[in-house]
Amino acid sequence: MIALVVGIVVLAMAGGAFVGITVTGIAGTEDRPAPRRASPAAPAHDRPGPVTADFVAIEKVPRVRAAPAPDGTLTAQCGSNEDGHYNSDNMIVTPGITNGAHHLHDYVGNTTTSAASTDRSLAAAPTTCRDRGDRSAYYWPVLRDLVDATKQARFPGEQESDRNVGLVLRPTASLVFSGNPFAPVVAPPQFLRVITGDAKAVTGGGRNAHARFTCRGFTDRVTTDRYPLCPDGRGLTRILEFPSCWDGRNTDSANHRTHVVFPDARGACRAGTVPIPKLTITLTYDVPVGASFAIDSFPDQRRAPLTDHADFVNVRTPASTDRLVDCLNAGRRC
């Protein structure tokens, strides 16, 4: 059965630019210690996706050249959502609207992030980060095991009509900030909102898509619009790299993008923008063998890998921000 599945999915593949982040560690659900093979009876029924063409064997993905490692990095040690902070809100894109995302988000950092969050409430909240001055909100769509599609209880705010079925898998999360190769980074403002990727890439044309997937042991192969099928299902990796060139004025913009943009292919910020610390979130999972997992999405995005995305609200104190900037500009690893 597995050989048949792989034989089908290798017809589609895509490359991408590897971001040069080293990933360590794996995790799964607390009560499922090892990946399992997808049953022929696994539900392919009432979910809107993914489809067979959304998967590719990692061995069939073209190799890419790794980017040079940055001189300065700081790892934000904020855990992997051990506290079970989930909701289907998005305080950046749909503030004040419960279930505004129509898909479930995984959170680390600020422990209170929801549709009701404000700058003031975030600044006063606890954090899961070891640096207690970092109360930032970090979040991304959950990834689910579709073999166990009927075993997950619905989370508060979720609606059946959103059609995101499956057992939520908890990743090992790595949050790394890095400097800029051309200029010192400046301090990002408190309450800066930044997003990466496009949650509506399927219907929106994909212009803002920024998904990256790979497998542990295959980090020279990165796919941008297919889920990779990793050997034995171990080490599936999502790489969520944020833009890092700020306009120097605004903490948000109407489309939540134009105030912070990506650098050029060399890593340089264009005229009129300044470099800020670049955040890369790397998520590593054990998943069922075969085409039996998917991220959550809006219903009309059919859980396509192209829609992977993440959100970040900077809620560092001035002292925490100074430590971050000083570390990166000094070229240290902190």
UniProtKB/TrEMBL annotation:
UniProt signal peptide: none
InterPro entries found in the cross-reference section: DUF1996
The DUF1996 domain, residue ranges: 92-314
Region (Disordered), start-end ranges: 28-50
Coiled coil: none
PANTHER family: DOMAIN PROTEIN, PUTATIVE (AFU_ORTHOLOGUE AFUA_6G11970)-RELATED, PTHR43662
Protein name (database record): DUF1996 domain-containing protein
Annotated organism of origin: Cryptosporangium aurantiacum
